[in-house]
Structures are given as structure tokens and as C-alpha cells.
């Protein structure tokens, strides 16, 4: 992660947007959140998921520190996809949102988020579906693909190749945040990251353990993904490495840029439109 660099300054753009109260345009969605449904995962951990729309199923997984409501529902992305004739299924990852937030290390073995993803697919009986995610959700999507998931189409958002093949760097940044809460200078990237944690009511004890679940995916495994893949990220987002590099590696990768950086792209309607257009076509 940046430390006083120009890139760091760029990443700060848009953070006030995501930390401020919602704009009037999405106020109704924010005031009427989709009620969660629940399942028990492979180890009995209770997981939440949210649904919107009817039609072909697509599973969209949120990013780290976030939840389905913040990542997909609040700013209209799920609504845009549902309008194309989709049943949008949005889980809250273990340790996030309305899902259980256990504090024991045993609940966070390597690749547990991948296994939770398969538990959701099995619970819903999905056989013909699309799959995608943002940031950690994109990484979880790739881990599922690497372990046999077979969606028709894939969306990888807020993700570059480095974020898939070398998870330690990104994980180390968040571990430093979670183990030093309350110590960062106001206005710094670290302070803003902590502020975002507070806006999503994140549980530091659970979230620091989520970092232990990260598993690197070899470059050759990523290159072997044959489905049509939309790689869509903020034009200033290199938090997980350059998204165009990832799209170029994929045999059927398509890169699209939307305004903003890693965090601010989430509030842009262009993100939902790009995902909806890709899936709808």
C-alpha cells in the first residue's frame, strides 16, 4: 500500500463520498435494506445472504471490511443487474455483515471463504449461474474457480493479478490497521480505512482472523480460467495491482474502467451498469 506517494494521494479521492451519508438518489434503498436470509455453512457457521430480483442467478460477493448492503445494494448496483432479468444473490462473508463473526482461530482456516461460497451454491441448488465479486469477493471468486466452480460468466472487480497471486502484501496492510486502531493521523489513508471499518460496523477481532484465510492463486491457474470474465475497476485503482494486466492474462478477459479508485468506484453508478451490461449480453 502507498505511504505518502502520489498513488496514495489518488487513493484518498472519493473516500469522503463513501464515508458521508448517502446521497438522496439512493436514500430509499438505504432506508429499506433487503432482509437477510441464512444458511449453515459446512462447519455450522451461520451465514447471511441477500436476494434481489428474479431470473438467472448471479452470485456477487463483497469486499473486505464491507458487506452486501454497502458493496452492492446501497449504491444501486444490485438493482441495475436485477433490472436485466437476474436474481442477484449477495452473501455476507464470514466475519462480515449479518453473518456470524466468531473470534476463534479454528473458524478461519485457509480458503474458508471459498468453502463458504460452495456451501451457498449447494444450499440454493444452483447449477447454471454467474459468479463475481469485488476485491476480496473477486479473490474468493477466483479461489472457487480454482477449486471446481463452473459459472457461465465471471465478474472480477477491484482486482488485479497481484491481488490474486500475492495476498500477503494487501493482507499485511489491513493487519497493521486492525492491530493499531486509534493511532493513525487524521486524514491519512490508514485513518480513512479505519473510518470505513466503523461505517460498516466491522468487528476487528473477526476481521483480523479473516486475513489468515487468504490463499495465493498461481498465475498459471488464473490463466486457465476459460469463462468470459469482466475485469472492471476504478481507473485510479491499483490496490491489488493493475486490472488491465489481469484482463490480458485471461483467455476471455474484458477490461472496463469506471471513475474513481478502489473505494470510490463502489459509489459510482457506472460500476453497476458495466456489470449489468456484461451479464445481460
Automatic annotation (TrEMBL):
<dbReference type="Pfam" id="PF12697">
    <property type="entry name" value="Abhydrolase_6"/>
</dbReference>
<dbReference type="GO" id="GO:0016787">
    <property type="term" value="F:hydrolase activity"/>
</dbReference>
<dbReference type="InterPro" id="IPR000073">
    <property type="entry name" value="AB_hydrolase_1"/>
</dbReference>
<keyword id="KW-0378">Hydrolase</keyword>
<protein>
    <submittedName>
        <fullName>Alpha/beta hydrolase</fullName>
    </submittedName>
</protein>
<dbReference type="InterPro" id="IPR029058">
    <property type="entry name" value="AB_hydrolase_fold"/>
</dbReference>
<dbReference type="InterPro" id="IPR050266">
    <property type="entry name" value="AB_hydrolase_sf"/>
</dbReference>
<feature type="domain" description="AB hydrolase-1">
    <location>
        <begin position="58"/>
        <end position="263"/>
    </location>
</feature>
Amino acid at each position: 500500500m502507498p505511504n505518502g506517494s502520489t498513488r496514495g494521494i489518488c487513493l484518498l479521492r472519493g473516500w469522503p463520498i463513501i464515508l458521508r451519508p448517502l446521497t438522496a438518489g439512493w436514500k430509499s434503498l438505504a432506508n429499506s435494506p433487503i432482509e437477510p436470509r441464512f444458511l449453515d455453512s459446512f462447519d455450522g457457521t451461520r451465514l447471511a445472504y441477500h436476494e434481489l430480483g428474479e431470473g438467472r442467478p448471479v452470485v456477487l460477493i463483497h469486499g473486505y471490511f464491507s458487506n452486501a448492503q454497502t458493496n452492492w445494494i446501497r449504491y444501486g448496483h444490485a438493482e441495475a443487474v436485477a433490472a436485466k432479468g437476474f436474481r442477484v444473490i449477495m452473501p455476507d462473508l464470514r466475519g462480515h455483515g449479518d453473518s456470524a463473526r466468531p473470534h476463534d482461530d479454528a473458524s478461519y482456516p485457509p480458503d474458508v471463504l471459498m468453502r463458504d461460497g460452495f456451501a451457498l451454491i449447494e444450499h440454493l441448488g444452483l447449477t447454471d449461474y454467474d459468479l463475481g465479486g469485488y476485491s476480496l469477493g473477486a479473490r474468493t471468486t477466483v479461489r472457487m474457480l480454482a477449486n471446481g466452480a463452473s459459472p457461465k460468466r465471471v465478474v472480477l472487480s477491484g482486482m488485479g493479478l497481484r491481488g490474486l497471486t500475492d495476498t500477503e502484501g494487501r493482507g499485511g496492510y489491513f493487519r497493521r490497521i486492525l492491530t493499531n486502531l486509534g493511532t493513525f493521523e487524521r486524514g491519512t489513508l490508514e485513518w480513512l480505512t479505519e473510518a470505513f471499518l466503523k461505517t460498516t460496523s466491522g468487528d476487528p477481532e473477526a476481521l483480523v482472523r479473516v486475513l489468515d484465510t487468504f490463499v495465493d492463486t498461481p498465475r498459471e491457474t488464473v490463466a486457465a480460467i476459460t469463462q468470459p470474465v469482466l475485469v472492471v475497476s476504478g481507473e485510479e485503482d491499483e490496490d491489488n495491482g493493475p486490472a488491465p494486466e489481469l484482463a490480458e492474462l485471461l483467455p476471455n478477459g474484458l477490461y472496463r474502467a469506471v471513475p474513481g479508485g478502489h473505494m470510490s468506484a463502489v459509489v459510482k453508478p457506472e460500476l453497476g451498469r458495466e456489470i449489468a451490461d456484461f451479464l445481460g449480453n
